[in-house]
Amino acid sequence: MGIENYEVIFKYDTDSIKRRELKMATGTQMVLEVKKNKLNNSSKWFTFGQKIRP
User: Fold this and answer.
1) What is the 3-state secondary structure (H, E, C) of 6-45?
2) What is the overall mean pLDDT for the chain?
3) Of 8, 20, 29, 49, which is least surrounded by CB within 10 A?
4) Could you tell me if 3 and 52 are in contact, meaning their C-beta atoms sit under 8 angstroms apart?
5) Which residues of 9-23 are buried (b: 16+ CB within 10 A; e: fewer)?
6) Contacts of 34 (CB under 8 A, 6+ apart)
7) pTM above 0.70, yes or no
8) 8 A C-beta contact, residue 53 and residue 7
């Protein structure tokens, strides 16, 4: 799996998280925290991918 795949996953994941948060605006704080952590972890992968790109 190349770095490009991580970037695609990151973009797709970010979009789906945003859509879910709009739908589930009444969700519990804990659920929102988990989503936030997931997004932060994805951002680290995305940044890593950008750094090693020529």
Assistant:
1) HHHHHHHHHHHHHHHHHHCCCCCHHHHHHHHHHHHHHHHH
2) 60
3) 29
4) yes
5) ebeebeeeeeeeeee
6) none
7) no
8) no
